[in-house]
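Key idea: predict the complex, not the pieces.
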Amino acid sequence: MTYPIPPGTRDVLPEEMRELRAIGDRMRETFEGAGYGEIHTPALEYEEVLLRGDARAAGARYRSFDDQGAVLALRSDMTIPIARVVATRYAEASPPLRFSYVARAWRATDRGVGEPREFLQAGLELVGVPGAEGEAEVIALTIEALTAAGLGRHRVGVGDGALYRGLLSSFGVPEDAHMPMLEALSRRDLVDLEHQVDALGLEQAHHDLLVRLPQLRGGPEVLGDAPEVEGLRALHQQLEARGVADRVIFDLGLVRELGYYTGPVFEVYDPAVGFTLGGGGRYDNLIGKFGRDLPACGLAVDVQRVHLAQAAEEALR
Amino acid sequence: MTGRLTIAVPRGALLGGTLDLLDGLGIDTSEVRSNDRKLLFADIGVVTMRPSDVPTYVEHGSADIGITGKDVLLEQSERKVYELLDLGYGACEMVVAAPDNGDPIADALRRLGRVRIATKYPRVAAAHFAETGRQAEIVEVKGSVELAPLTGLVDGIVDLTATGKTLAENNLRVFERITTCTARLIANPVAHKLKAAEMDAIVERVRG
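Result:
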């Protein structure tokens, strides 16, 4: 007889728990030290409240009913609950507002192997600081927190989730062709994407840009002087001022799956782990959906994946 | 993990074309060619495996890049790997075939309301019949798919064919072409960022 637990969930025994706790603590200390107070929100929320944030992001597929018949859902990230908190509990507070969390979230997985259903996230949200200044603060602090957690070779990828869509519009690509192209881009199926671009019959320069863009990644040189990436150039300057520009990889093909991002998006990498450690981005419309119009950005990492990277880092020493 | 890339190389039908490709990139593959039992060739950064395992190794980052067939990628579409290039070689057709005796698939659909299909590609087959509005019972087999309709297990098959010879020898006829599958270059998403220069050098040389 076996007594299984659902695939993608796990028991954590004391030795591992101690190490996870230590990583969470070091990240929390970094965030708190920078003025990001830790916040707790309920694991269960009303589904209609999460859906107000974003229909896809709220895709927590674990639902239940309470005794009133209301639909409750396990949160799938902390960003939407914090947006709700900002608009309701801090309705009058003057920005900027800074919050951090080390908390669990739940997502449905398409397959059991490797993909967690329940995961522990450490992250931060910066509310009320628009543009590059806010993004640079969040990126720099995440890099610092991961260094505190024992990593040494981590990097942050930065792209602009709206860039490709904007180019498609400005090149006059019909709206109904956008979704399949953005979908191919988000999977980085560059073969499929190139076929789709070929079929558009664009002028050569536009064609080549749409094909090459998803491969452009590296230092600030990939940004060139195009007006579309003005925001990323400003971000690079801010990152330089904070001394972390060499830890950042600009990636013009980067898009994140969550629907609420409005500008720059981030991913966190470590050479010891084949998966991204986490991600985030700017979401200037999300808090407004709960009634207070404030720009914001945030970043979160999966603590168990950070642990994998930290263990590999330790083995190198 | 810095410097040179680890490359997942498929054994089987794609091996020859893949080794030719690697030779063209200046990688000395003579040891791989002369030793078909050894799996790991650390000094040239090559690991060899079944084509269907390539996405697994690349997704987890145990290999930075890999070469496998589009058929494998279609069947394992949930894998988080980047598809960088169509390498062109190893072209095969994914087809629906059935005994060359009338139209067994249409007959089954008309009289029994569903068709039974044997395949090594259950997800590709199910998607094809769903997209064309037909009910299909998919029977997954591991070995020679051609046997299944001959014994009455199924009405037809979905399989990959290069020349159509094996199908013809088993008295099977191609009724529908689903798609053409060629060898693809895939990459681990993290290595794509952290080893961009090495990866781009390969992509540039292959694109020519």
